[in-house]
Amino acid sequence: MEKILPIGEYIEKGINSLEQNLSFLWSAIDDGISWLVENMNDLFLAIPFVIILALIAFIAYYVKAGNKMFTLSGLKKAYGLTIFVILGLLLIYAMGYWEEAIQTTTLVIVSTIIALILGIPFGIWSAKSNTADTVIRPILDFMQTMPAFVYLIPAIFFFSVGNTPGVIATVIFSLPPSVRLTNLGIRNVPGDVIEAGRAFGANENQILYKIQLPLAMPTILAGINQVILLALSMVVIASMVGAKGLGSIVYQGIQQNDIAKGFESGLGIVVLAMILDRITQSIGSKK
Amino acid sequence: MADDNNIRIKVEDLTLIFGKRKKEALELLNQGYSKTDILKKTKCTVGVNKASFEIKKGEIFVIMGLSGSGKSTLIRCLNRLNDPTDGRVYFKEHDITRDSNKQLLDTRRTEMSMVFQKFGLLPHRTILENAAFGLEIRGEPKEQRDEKGMKALKTVGLEGYEDQYPAELSGGMQQRVGLARALANDTDVLLMDEAFSALDPLIKSDMQDELLQIQNKLHKTIVFITHDLDEAMKVGDRIAIMKDGVVEQIGTAEEILTDPATEYVEAFVEKVDRKTIITAETLMFDNPIIVRFKKDGPKAAIRKMREAGVNVLPVEDNDEKFLGYVWLEDMLKLEKEKAKTVESALNTEVPSVYKHYTVEEMLPLITGHHHPLAVVDDEGKLEGIITQTSLIIESTRFDDKEMDKLIGEANEL
Ligand SMILES: Nc1ncnc2c1ncn2[C@@H]1O[C@H](COP(=O)(O)OP(=O)(O)OP(=O)(O)O)[C@@H](O)[C@H]1O
Ligand SMILES: [Mg+2]
Fold first, then answer.
1. Which of A53, A145, B279, B367 is deepest in the core (most CB within 10 A)?
2. Which compartments is it annotated to reside in (chain A) (predicted)?
């Protein structure tokens, strides 16, 4: 069939000129992200496994038990997750993939932080302005329905291979829920509470920080949870552009047709996903 | 401008129109078109239509009317949660409709606080933090606002609940927190939009009593909105009745009951329990003919009774103090005995009331005797007389004919 409208070509041209004209920006972003990922990686790997194990087990226990930490009912609530976390991390360590798991976690953390830094303000903006909402909403739909592989192309184009394009593609893919759920959470704050705020003379900032954000927090946290899980689901794809971690082991497993490798690293990702999910969910469900 | 500094809030020709074509709608309104016509022509709703009134310092001013009559819209204009389309709102002689945003926030923070029908508490904050919310918005230091918040919670009887969360409290208690939040700001003006409407009848009645008690101590200027006429009559010093955005009548409960300005008001007040509203002052006839104790003898008394066409008259001493009643039959007897004074036939064991006594309070006083009720002032001087018949007519709402029939039947027994 004949192409009447070569949209792809236009996009390519546009991206080309962006690449050339803003090259200083891309290299700055690349440097920044690489620096962050590498240092965080080194830091985590410098800490002995047992200490990290203890730390994460403690976090898991704390988010479940909260201020009932030292009571029997707190223990009853929290022991399940804590034991699961300990066994899960031991399993990853025993399979010999501790370093890769740390690399993956770092990637997820960095991507999530960037996604939230961008996503939450956009969420607030689209909650406050209907115009912003109508513009942002279709963009988010686009970002989520576009196959994740497609993001790899411009990411490689701007940043060649390595962790940075992996992080960028992950950020684009995992950002939408943070915008959507921040927006939803703020819009669902009951009108009478906001009216009460106004009647007592609260200005826009006070309304946002003292009323809207605190009341929207459970929804925003649910958004953060989704961002983390989406980021984790991108690790295999990100490994195709050179991001290190469990994803790249899975990728190797596929390429070498190595069932053992593929299964072990896949299992590692599942365990990580469950730990991150349960912990962040518990933060969200607390008062 | 309001020239009387006793006046806290003055509203002049206040109009508020909802919708996009406000100007057009306002023009039509000024030409005398009705609310429905304007809605049809411009798709704009007239929320408030040229309301004018003054609210005095220290009074409870009630705005009442049916759902949709524009009460909320009107009260929200007072702190400009709604921006008036036309007209003026003066607060302490200052026109707030022209205030900048900053001045407006200031007024809301320091001059007026509000209590809401749905409470509007923050669920993630403790009771104390909720009570101190207005102070926090104002930027007061934590220690100071905790202290003021505690004091306000104490005023509304919620001591001991300060560390709990709103969801742990009953509706009535939550509204106490709402009231405490408004009191903590220590503003002169309280705006209460159907503050008690969401509460159970018993709790509602408690809250009304409590509000009146607090008002007795603090003397705030309160604008109180309700659609419940009994509530309006109970708490209001003055009442404004609204219909379709128009203020139909303003007056005391009694003025509105006894002299409704429009048919609408009349229909509205028909169902009210008048016994608790109508007072001695309304029922009495003043300047009654009197018998002077030392001066008038039986003859004079009989003559006065004939002139007035009654068979009983009040007796006063030289200082105009009310002493009691003399009856025609006793006077006729004394006249035969050629007595000089009415002293021996004076009934002194008779009920007397003050002007503010209500029908409900007076009814028990007329059992077991035939004497009329004497209305006296603090010094015991006679101000008027209430016959038993007029009291019964008032409390039963029988008209005169029914009453005559009733009396006839009673006499036959
Ligand atoms: N935001 C709004 N936009 C358009 N019309 C409105 C708006 N708010 C109120 N109205 C209309 O203005 C009129 C007055 O409403 P208002 O809420 O002041 O009545 P109310 O007397 O407080 O009634 P209720 O007892 O139900 O609270 C109604 O006809 C209502 O439909
Ligand atoms: Mg209302």
1. B279
2. Cell membrane
**Are the C-beta atoms of B282 and B307 separated by less than 8 Å?**
no
- A204 contact B CB<8A: no
**Distances from the Cα of B269 to the Cα of A174, B185, B232, B274, angstroms:** 63, 36, 11, 9
> How much is the ipTM here?
0.80
- A21 Cβ contact partners less than 8 Å away, ≥ 6 residues apart: none
Where does the pLDDT of residue A287 fall: very low under 50, low under 70, confident under 90, or very high at 90 and above? very low
Q: Which among B18, B77, B227, B243 is the best mutation to test ligand 1's pocket, defined by most ligand atoms within 8 Å of the CB?
A: B18
Instruction: Report the alpha-carbon distance of residue B198 to residue B204 in Å, rounded.
Output: 8
Q: At what angle do helices A98-128 and A72-94 cross, to 10 degrees?
A: 120
CA dist B184 and A160 (Å) reads 62
The single-letter code of the amino acid at B400 is D
Question: How far is the centre of ligand 1, averaged over its atoms, from the C-alpha of B76 (Å)?
Answer: 11
Average pLDDT, chain B: 89
Q: CB contact, 8 Å: A283 with chain B? A: no
Residue B43, both tokens = 């798709």
- Cite the beta strand spans of B27-85 per DSSP E: 45-56, 60-64
Q: Comparing C-alpha atoms, which of B394, B388, B382, B386 is closest to residue B410?
A: B388
What domains are there in chain B, each with its CATH number? 280-412 (3.10.580.10)
Mean pLDDT on B92-119? 92
**Domains defined along chain A, listed by start:** 24-46+97-286 (1.10.3720.10)
